[in-house]
Amino acid sequence: MPPAAKASPSGPPPFDPYDPLGLDDLLSDEDRAVRDTVRRWAAERVLPHVAGWYERGELPVIRELARELGAIGALGMPLTGYGCAGASAVQYGLACLELEAADSGIRSLVSVQGSLAMYAIHRYGSEEQRQQWLPRMAAGEVIGCFGLTEPDHGSDPAAMRTRARKDGSDWVLDGRKMWITNGSVAGVAVVWAQTDEGIRGFAVPTDTPGFSAPEIHHKWSLRASVTSELVLDGVRLPADAVLPGVSGLRGPLSCLSHARYGIVWGAMGAARASFEAALDYARSREQFGKPIGGFQLTQAKLADMAVELHKGILLAHHLGRRMDAGRLRAEQISFGKLNNVREAIDICRTARTILGANGISLEYPVMRHATNLESVLTYEGTVEMHQLVLGKALTGLDAFRG
Q1: Which residue in 122, 348, 364, 377 could disulfide with 274, CB within 3.0 to 4.6 Å?
Q2: Residue 87 gets which letter from DSSP?
Q3: Would the pTM count as exceeding 0.90?
Q4: What ranges does the record give for the region Disordered, renumbered to this chain (predicted)?
Q5: Residue 109 lies inside a defined structural domain of this protein
Q6: Is 380 one of the catalytic residues?
């Protein structure tokens, strides 16, 4: 057996209410540097403005933000080459946590750019496609989007109706995609379509005739985010637009797994921001002659929130280490997304009760995070889909189709 760890001569460090388990000890100096860089950028460039963007339902500076995120290495972080940072999975996760602590819409911008569009091209594209798109996407000069979900086919992408047919050496695409983050500002869309060879992916320049991306309005969630429909009416592409490295659902599903991993971390960012707002409020808000943090029921809420928040961060760390070791399975990512998003929403709702009526004000981040997480709960796999993924893994029986 290894020798027992020796106690520090000065004893354990003081209890930190913002890091009660001492999870910061799990990080290397480089990890902390990445985290602190993203946290500082979000504090300076997002937090002063995001409540206004959310209230107005817009992200007017998305192209500017994308270039800034590229400059700090946050786009395509875990990818190597082509101007990408080659960061570890844990470092990418830490960045997602800090971005979503500012707003889910900002984390979605980064996630769709790097974990979906760039990841698809990096893993399944030709060398020419990688050279054409990835350096500019890593720099934030070109924004990407990922066209999989359709108006009538969300959880069942195998039934997609978007079709690509051969016409001589060209491909012609027709169909619709729905709820596409970054769609109307993208320079390239990775679109998945049915072909005679099975489902294939295509790198579609968005200035191609027949392609349009009308923005979706009237959202009550992810309001500081660009969400669009993709319309493909006879979009003609050359033969080399197809991603040559994959056919079938394995391609888009592997991209989704990569993006879901970022959500495991990101959801804890929204939860952390809400917990910290509630903790600070409980220390200063007075009722019946003392701060409400001095009442047992408030302390019980704060204790339960802290437990679930830091368990979720610990789970994200564990999955990140497994990804870095090449041992992370898709079912384990489903485990993380199911747990962390569900617990994050509960933390936000509990935080709202501590803030009382102030909890619904955009002066505080809690209601904004709670409504954003309603979308995060659904996209890239609903609760039911992740339950069935885990159920199949546990029993060996497939319940997806009756």
Answers
A1: 348
A2: -
A3: yes
A4: 1-22
A5: yes
A6: yes
